[in-house]
Request: fold
Amino acid sequence: MAPMLILASQSQTRKALLQQAGLVFSTHPAELDERALEDATLASGGDGRDVALLLAQRKALTVSADYPGAIVIGADQTLSLGTELLHKPLDRDQAAIQLDHLRGKTHRLHAAVALARDNQLLWSDIETAELTMREFSAAERDDVLNREGEAVLGSVGSYRLEGPSIRLFETVTGDYFTILGLPLLPLLAALRSFAPETLT
Reply:
């Protein structure tokens, strides 16, 4: 019998990516104080990559402790603008402020993924993509926010590359799945190695 596969996330995008890859899984978001872990990592000299990797690992481990024998996928994504980390906007006004802050600049998205079983970390990986926004106008920004609606509130950086937000970008370098928040190809390779039954 194939081991139970669990996604330790409530991200609709990550769920969709795994479903499109033909995986059968359940979702059980991890209960973590993410901001406290982020603050501690940064205070000890870590950066956005370190934060994303730690959170992905902790999510996988936390959920795996409650589901013996299950293969748990933990994932996290951070956005670095230089040494600054941005977070999901609370409302449309904050989304507009974030987009203005990113306008004409290059930022990095760090997406981490981890596998755990029986409270043991099996594997983890982190990938980085680099994105540059163009010098868009306030009217263009507002048009994109109107088109996106509340969807951007669930996205770090206040945009969705898979949606109308793509209009705000000048260049994108990196893996598409990493940008969406889940390094899918490395994850599938890891599942083939550590839990091939989950792919059948």
The longest strand covers residues 120-133. The first helix runs from residue 12 to 20. The mean pLDDT is 94.
